[in-house]
Amino acid sequence: MYYNDKSIYIYSIKPKFNKLMKTITTTFFVFFISFLALAEVSVAEKEALVKFYHTTNGNQWKKTWDLKAATSTWYGVKIKDNKVVGLELPNNKLKGQIPAEISNLKYLETLDLFKNDLNGSLPASIGELQALKTLNVSFNRLTGSIPVTIGNAKSLKTIELYMNSLTGGLPNEIGNLAQLENLSLFNNMLEGELPKSLFGLKNLKVLMLNSNNFSGKLSYEVENLTALENLSLFENNFVGQVPFELENLSNLKEMNISYNKFNGLISYALAKKDTFQMTMLNDKGLAVRLPLITDNTGVVGTPD
Q1: Do β-strands 77-80 and 83-88 pair in parallel, antiparallel, or remain unpaired?
Q2: H helices of 252-295, where?
Q3: For residue range 167-212, what is the model confidence (pLDDT) as tens digits?
Q4: Looking at the whole model, is its pTM more than 0.90?
Q5: pLDDT in tens, 222-247
């Protein structure tokens, strides 16, 4: 049989070409599958995000989502290892309610919805977010009470719900959050006495409950908040003696408990710590400074 040089050459390179094409195709396929894996999250998580989008008027956000694109391209959605770990949409013109399905984002570590126009209650399902470390829904129009289920989200380090219209009391279950460092609930309509469990939070550094309707006495157990750096309780309805145990909080850098109905004597050290030097409201609603006591002889005056 006769073979010319050209036919021999073509015959010799054909297997090599086929092998090369197979390698390229396989590599591309693996790359494509890997890309999809990186770009997408579970069906349940994506559905939860889409539900959130619709219940908060997503098409009117400042920066909106293309629901046909990969979730990895959606503004404010943080993904790690194919899991949604962050939903960060502050000041983005969200309007509506946080859906109960938010709990399907079970790997969520950060939920930041600061300064939007969200209304309704904080869903009880928020307590199912076991990985949640930061919760910030401040500066919205939330109503209703803080759900007791929040005590189940035991990874929480920061809770910021200030500048809303929340009512009811601070749930006793807040004491379950052993890792909590920041509890900022000021400028709401919260009421009632502070639960004793609050004073067991050894890692709490910031406690800002001012401008609410809290009442009752401030427990001497406040001294157990040894990590506390900022204590703000002003403009509430606390009564009774200011606990001298506040002096034992060595890390305390800023304190404001004025404009309550505390009475009795205080030390110079306490007056000096307080921003308004222990100015309280008397029975007539007038602002007065609590009298000082500096030694065993009794009252020596009021703060200068």
Answers
A1: antiparallel
A2: 268-273
A3: 999 999 999 999 999 999 999 999 999 999 999 999 999 999 999 9
A4: no
A5: 999 999 999 999 999 999 999 999 99
Domains of the chain, by residue range, sit at: 5-258
Q: Which two tokens stand for residue 31?
A: 């790359």
Residue 222 corresponds to which tokens in the numbers above? Answer: 């406040």
Instruction: Determine the Cα–Cα distance for residues 264 and 278; give it in Å rounded to an integer.
Output: 11
Residue 32: pLDDT band (50, 70, 90) is very low
Supply the CATH classification number for the domain 5-258: 3.80.10.10
* Per-residue pLDDT band at 37 (split at 50, 70, 90): very low
